Amino acid sequence: MNDISCRKTHFDIGKPPTTPLHWQTFIFHFHDFESLPSEKGSCVLSPEFAFCGHMWSLRFYPSGFDEESLNDQCSVFLEIHDREEKIAIDFSISIFDLNGKEVRIISTDNVFDENSPSGCGWHDYVERSYIMSSENQILNNGTLSIILKMRPKGILDRPIEPFVPSNTFQRNMSDLYLDEEYADVKFAIQHKRINEDGEEEILDNPDFVCAHRLILRQCAPGLDAMLGDSYVSMTPVPIIGVDTSTFKVALKRVYGLPILYNEWKKHSRELIDAADRFGLKNLKLESEAWFVKLTAITNENVDELRVYADSKNCYLLKEEVMKFFAKTSFPMLKGIFNEVRDVKSAVTDGKDEGSSSSEEASRKICISSLRRQANDEGLDIDGSHETLIQRLKDHSKMKTKSDIKSIKNTSEI
């Protein structure tokens, strides 16, 4: 759950094979973990799910199963609900931190039948305090995610589907990140300092970062434009005003690599600046989303954030600032923005806050919804509320004309 994304839900139409020939993954999200029972023996039971023709559930004990469990330990068990038919499985239960690193995994195999216990798992799975500690970055907005992987044992005598390897293009592209052997572009990240006269001066020890022009041309045209048509391979291109770590993180996205939670936490605002400067549109919007997620708006910083949002055309941040002003009834509300209707549209769409239709209209017109609609239609997702709305309206008109023309041609046939 560390990424800002949607979940996938699979539906079976017809009867699936009772015995899968590969691992299946089930993810359980325990929301508001801190408020889960703190008494030993208190169980949080997952919904039932199907696997290999049987019904199962995950039993999670936030403070231990019984007195056999050590203090400060969470217990977890896989439970089968019907044991008339014998089944042997391999399974593992794991936890990842927000950076995608597996921090806890235990695996085993077990035979479930009418003579065996209905559950199999671990009394001392992981310390509750370890999960709760913000330093370990396990909880995502208070939610603990547990990953269960299962597969049946004894399937070697069954026909095995041919193994088809995945396309390696993205992995190969990612391997080129910071590669020097095949690089043909070199950026020199310049460092500045204030001298004794109080003036800024550029130091003579830049950090060099290598890249590949073909990738820049396709994925970072702003950086490519800095090189010019007469660029000579591996000639240092000076970069001033961006620190090396931020530039490297920005370049990760250019090469298709994920940016880790720690990096968003440290660099999200600097990435907005870098992406805005180098024309990395999608990175700018993603950085803005993370900055909004990780930044608490207060009376002390709201005015500075408003100015920053205006200067960088960060419409999501501007929307959050407007919501803050509206909720706190800030006295200078009317003088903050050129058009007060922007505030109304961001919060209530110009209607009374108490009406449900107003809340629904507010959700439809929020910048994230407009960006999502534009993305679904294959349109440019950058721009203000008004720009996106007009873009969607124009696209809708074009689609309507196209549909009418298609119907007319069909009827003539």
Keywords:
single chain; 413 residues; alpha+beta; Apoptosis, Tumor Necrosis Factor Receptor Associated Protein 2, Chain A; Potassium Channel Kv1.1, Chain A; four-stranded antiparallel β-sheet; 37% helix
Shape: globular
CATH superfamily of the domain at 24-152: Apoptosis, Tumor Necrosis Factor Receptor Associated Protein 2, Chain A
Number of continuous helical runs: 14
Beta-strand percent range: 15-25%
Write down the CATH class of the domain at 24-152: Mainly Beta
Quick structural gist:
The chain has 413 residues and is an alpha+beta fold.
Characterise this structure.
The longest helix is centred in the C-terminal third of the chain and has 28 residues, at 385-412. Among the domains are: 24-152, Sandwich (Apoptosis, Tumor Necrosis Factor Receptor Associated Protein 2, Chain A); 172-280, Potassium Channel Kv1.1, Chain A, CATH 3.30.710.10. It has helices at residues 128-132, 169-175, 213-219, 221-227, 244-254, 261-278, 281-294, 302-312, 315-328, 333-336, 340-347, 356-365, 367-376, 385-412, and strands spanning 24-30, 44-45, 49-51, 54-61, 73-80, 87-96, 102-112, 119-127, 144-152, 185-189, 192-194, 200-202, 207-211, 236-239. By secondary structure, it is of the alpha+beta class. The chain starts with 23 loop residues before the first strand and ends with a helix. The radius of gyration is 27 Å and the shape is globular.
